[in-house]
Design goal:
CATH superfamily of one domain in chain A: MetI-like
Radius of gyration of chain A: 26 Å
Number of strands of chain A: 4
Oligomer: heterodimer
Largest sheet of chain B: 6 strands, mixed
Distance between the termini of chain A: 54 Å
Number of helices of chain B: 19
CATH superfamily of the largest domain in chain B: Periplasmic binding protein-like II
Largest sheet of chain A: 2 strands, antiparallel
Shape of chain B: globular
Shape of chain A: globular
Mean pLDDT of chain B: 92
Radius of gyration of chain B: 23 Å
Structural class of chain B: alpha/beta
CATH class of one domain in chain A: Mainly Alpha
CATH architecture of one domain in chain A: Orthogonal Bundle
CATH class of the largest domain in chain B: Alpha Beta
Structural class of chain A: mainly alpha
């Protein structure tokens, strides 16, 4: 019997892997790859959302025109110190990267990444409209600036506060479990609920913040319509909202650190803050990198907070990129131009993903 | 037994499913739970419109109406996305100011030849209402109201400030008088003279627009932006002088400015016709600061009377008319029902669009109606434009920049001019 059985066809490992991956790949291609290239395709057209829906021929191929109308202007020139603060900090960054590499404090890849970022910081803000010139879209670059500002404030805010919370709550007691749950709770709320809660908190008439200010004899701040505080209000809201997941990642990282290290350190008289600085932080380096990169990618896509709390105001100080894309696509029906902005956003987030990949590989070595 | 069940199921399908048309409806105005079907008892825009819709669903044979969940702030984005996706609601509300864009793209059904058969008499519509729903010779919607900016007045505070004569508030007739009366008001009451949403929705824009129209100026003329003008500067400064002297607070948003007025912390609230019945109702409550409520026409500070106005109307997608005649007929029945209940909608404070309602005793006897009878004659809006929403947004941004962030008036108007010109050129 055994001799006469026909030879069974068996998949080799590669084929099996491919078959198992097929459902994922198909979904991924259909819902991510295809829309992505479709988006790039749309960005090359003059494409009115509603007009094209009624008449598919209503679009017109315009090449890179949308990119030009969004990012470029009339009579744009380059100057070395147009935006001195940013450009000088770029130069400092460049010098730092060379110094760090020379002294062997960072690896080659990190130094190159830092140097590229620094060069861009020197180069990009140098563009400005010359005499009689203007940006075609006067809101785009300020909106990019606002988004960067938001990311620049939110990411360190989330990272530092989540790290401190995680360190404080990393104990095996009932109370700490309760606190961990409480701090994570805000994360599960939807953006509408979060913004509703904070709009009430910030309200100058009935808000908790105003009541506390008044109790101490101050006049309440009108957070959401004051240009000095509107962005801060959105950042505070976002930090409160995004704290949970970062805290959980840090807690996982903390529990990976061997207790022996702390015991050994305490013999050398390193406890408390010292132990945190010399043992906890270095061992959390990978988690910190992960949290920062994840947060950067996430926070660049901020939309709901600015849309619901301040409507981008006052005077566009909280207008962010995704909200501008949304308005251009749906209010103005200008899908081509909106897609061009979306491709720009993709490039930024793609750069950070590559950075994470590079840093992650380096630490594996 | 088995046959009996199948027979009953078939009978039920014939009785309900086969002939019943479920019409989906998209609207703003906010949500109202438990609106009921009594169109005479509901209070406030959201509950009055929902009670009319519920009544239509209950009373029209073979038609049920499902109100889709939509949000005020994102309403048009949502409607446009649904049109683009081929899933537009069977009936939806829109503003006169948006008709140009929707009708121009061929999104809306031309109702001209079907209204009479559905029992809607276009001859009963006020001429301005007919022109509001017309575009390129066709009728693309059924009008429901005119709404306009009013001055809502706290008479107790005005009395205290000596600004009442013969039971009516004394209102300014020039920017100088506005400042003088506002100061007189503050000195007597300690409160702000005027409140409005200058920080969120474009109500401040509508105030400035009205003051421009009062000088026979506008924000664009054909394809040319004309915002960077002396008239615009005069209009803006008529308002900013109040902020500068501490007689009004530019930082209040819609809810806060309304709350300030209801608390008795402002003499005047600039807001639309849509809140007249709500404030009337509030003023009867013991816990509300506002006790003696009066509604006045937007005063004329320059040469001619003018106040911002718009119109709500109901439309049907062109695709429904083309593809589903039975449902289209059902949708028209619902529009006819809403048209028949124009008097109930007017209870909000909005102005009716039907001559028969405008001349009825029931209409003229609505609370405060006689106090703002002059508003219909001074109602204005910007010329039709497919970029209306974006233009309003530019103005709202630049005007807020002036009063919230101290941007120079000339610079703000020049910037607004450039941006509106860009929008007109697109």
């Amino acid at each position: 019997m055994s001799g006469s059985a026909p030879q069974k066809w068996r998949m080799n490992q590669t084929q099996a892997a491919f078959v198992l991956l097929l459902p994922f790949l198909a979904t991924y291609a259909l819902f991510l790859i295809y829309p992505f290239f479709r988006g790039i395709w749309i960005s090359l057209h003059d494409w009115n959302l509603m007009a094209v829906a009624f008449n598919p021929d209503a679009k017109e191929f315009v090449g890179l025109h949308n990119y030009e109308r969004v990012m470029w202007g009339e009579n744009i020139t380059w100057g070395a110190f147009v935006n001195p603060l940013v450009q000088i900090s770029g130069l400092i960054g460049l010098a730092l990267s060379i110094f760090l590499r020379r002294t062997g404090r960072v690896s080659k890849v990190t130094a190159i990444a830092l140097a590229i970022a620094a060069v861009l910081l020197v180069f990009l803000p140098g563009f400005h409209p010359g005499e009689g010139g203007r940006w075609y879209d006067r809101r785009f670059w300020p909106t990019v600036g606002n988004t960067m500002m938001f990311v620049g404030l939110t990411v360190p805010g989330v990272t530092v506060s989540a790290l401190l919370l995680a360190a404080a709550l990393n104990r095996e007691t009932k109370a700490m479990t309760v606190f961990r749950t409480l701090f994570f709770l805000s994360q599960i709320l939807s953006v509408t609920v979060v913004t509703l809660i904070w709009q009430i908190m910030f309200s100058p008439r009935q808000g908790l913040v105003a009541n506390v200010t008044e109790a101490f004899g101050g006049t309440p701040i009108v957070w959401l319509t004051d240009e000095r505080f509107a962005m801060a209000a959105i950042v505070i809201t976002t930090i409160w909202w995004s704290l949970g997941i970062a805290m959980i990642l840090f807690l996982a990282g903390l529990q990976d650190i061997s207790k022996d290290l702390y015991e050994a350190a305490s013999l050398d008289n390193a406890t408390g803050l010292r132990a945190f600085w010399y043992i906890t932080l270095p061992n959390l380096k990978r988690t910190v990198t992960l949290v920062i990169v994840l947060q950067v990618i996430l926070q660049f896509q901020v939309f709901g907070q600015a849309h619901l709390m301040t409507q981008g105001g006052p005077n566009d100080t909280t207008q962010v990129l995704v909200r501008y894309i949304y308005q251009t696509a749906f209010r103005d029906s200008d899908l081509g131009r909106a897609s061009a902005m979306a491709v720009f956003l993709f490039v930024i987030m793609g750069a950070f993903s590559v950075l994470q990949f590079v840093l992650g590989r380096e630490e594996d070595r | 037994m088995k046959h009996l069940i199948i027979g009953a199921a078939v009978a039920a399908t014939i009785a309900t499913g086969a002939s019943a048309q479920d019409v989906t409806l998209g609207r703003f105005f906010g949500a109202c739970e438990d609106a009921g079907t009594d169109t005479k008892a509901s209070v406030g825009e959201a509950c009055i419109i929902q009670s009319i819709i519920n009544a239509a669903s209950a009373e029209i044979d073979g038609v049920t109406v499902t109100t889709l969940p939509t949000d005020w702030g994102n309403y048009y984005d949502q409607i446009k996305a649904s049109y683009a996706g081929g899933t537009a609601p069977d009936i939806h509300v829109l503003h006169r100011s948006s008709l140009a864009e929707f009708a121009g793209l061929g999104a809306l059904a031309d109702l001209s030849d079907d209204l009479a058969a559905a029992g809607i008499d276009t001859a009963d519509w006020a001429p301005a209402a007919l022109s509001a729903v017309s575009s390129d010779g066709g009728i693309y919607a059924v009008p429901m109201d005119f709404h306009a900016n009013l001055w809502h007045v706290n008479m107790d505070l005005m009395e205290k400030a000596g600004l009442v004569a013969e039971g009516k508030p004394i209102l300014p007739t020039s920017p100088e008088e506005l400042l003088a009366q506002a100061q007189q008001f503050k000195d007597a009451t300690g409160q702000n003279y005027l409140a409005a949403d200058f920080a969120q929705f474009p109500i401040g824009v509508r105030v400035v627009l009205a003051l421009m129209w009062q000088q026979n100026a506008n924000i664009f003329d054909g394809d040319n932006a004309t915002i960077d003008s002396d008239a615009a500067k005069n209009a803006v400064q008529a308002i900013t002088q109040l902020f500068g002297a501490g007689l009004a607070d530019p930082q209040l948003n819609y809810a806060d400015s309304q709350q300030a007025f209801l608390n008795g912390e402002a003499g005047i609230l600039v807001n639309g016709t849509w809140v007249v019945d709500f404030y009337t109702d509030e003023a009867t409550k013991p816990e509300v600061g506002l006790k003696s409520y009066y509604v006045a026409d937007f005063p004329t500070l320059f040469a001619d009377g003018a106040t911002w106005a718009d119109s709500h109307m109901w439309a049907i997608p062109a695709s429904l008319k083309a593809n589903d005649p039975a449902k289209y007929a059902a949708a028209l029945k619902v529009l006819a029902f809403i048209n028949d209940h124009n008097i109930d909608w007017a209870r909000t404070g909005h102005m009716s669009v039907r001559n028969s309602v405008l001349n009825s005793e029931e209409y003229t006897n609505l609370p405060h109606r006689s106090e703002y009878a002059g508003t219909a004659a001074i109602a204005r809006d910007t010329p039709p434009s497919a970029r209306y929403g974006a233009i309003q947004d530019v103005l709202n941004r630049e005007l807020q920049a002036i009063w919230l962030t101290d941007k120079d008036v000339n610079a703000a108007l020049a910037d607004a001019n450039i941006e509106v010109q860009d929008l007109l050129d697109r």
